[in-house]
Amino acid sequence: MEANQVYIERCDKETENLLAEEGQAFLSNPIDYLLSHKNEFVYIEATPFNEIGVDALSIEIDDIFGMYDVMLGLKLPKKLEPSIKAFLNQELQGEDIKFDLMFDQNDGLWNVNFTLNFLPDFRESMTFQEAFTSIYEFLAKLVKEVKQ
């Protein structure tokens, strides 16, 4: 992702207040940055995400389980719910896989929450760049498969 294609914010989880806008260099930080900044989430908008129907996404540490939660809005028709659920059940890997999928009638998009740890190529040492690339590839595959 090129710098002109990416907008990044660090925000407070409780208030959702902006803590800082970050530049491209922030993406080279390991995602375990969030382990020592549990009160924060990272919000990103990127042109490649827009091209697959994702306006923006955020990632944070789950306070209870210490897992990396990914939250996003996905522009797909409501009628694709069975296909989306089937894809998530098939492609996410691990024990006790959970994801949340709720259609927002007002916005016409799916609110999707899943655990980054359950992506096949997840590593605790990955950078934000690697995490966002992995999330993008996962979502692009989802969109391609459910539209067929």
Whole-Å distance between the termini?
Answer: 27 Å
Uncertain parts: none
Task: Record the strand order, biggest sheet.
Answer: 2-1-3-4-5-7-6
Alpha-beta classification: alpha+beta
Helix content: 10-25%
CATH architecture: 2-Layer Sandwich
Biggest pleated sheet: 7 strands, antiparallel
GO molecular function: transaminase activity
Keywords: Aminotransferase, Transferase
Protein name: Branched-chain amino acid aminotransferase
Explain the layout of strands and helices.
Elements: E1 6-12, E2 18-22, E3 40-46, H1 47-51, E4 54-61, E5 68-74, H2 81-91, E6 99-104, E7 109-115, H3 128-147
Antiparallel strand pairs: 1-2, 1-3, 3-4, 4-5, 5-7, 6-7
Helix pairs in contact: 2-3
Describe the structure.
Keywords: Aminotransferase, Transferase. This is Branched-chain amino acid aminotransferase. It comes from Robertmurraya kyonggiensis. It contains 3 helices and 7 strands. The protein has a single domain, classed as 2-Layer Sandwich (Yope Regulator, Chain: A). Strand 4 and strand 5 form a beta hairpin. It is globular, with a radius of gyration of 15 Å. It has 148 residues and is α+β, with helices and mostly antiparallel strands. It has a 7-stranded antiparallel sheet.
Task: List the main descriptive attributes of the protein structure presented here.
aminotransferase, 24% helix, Yope Regulator, Chain: A, Branched-chain amino acid aminotransferase, transferase, alpha+beta, 3 helices, single chain, transaminase activity, 148 residues
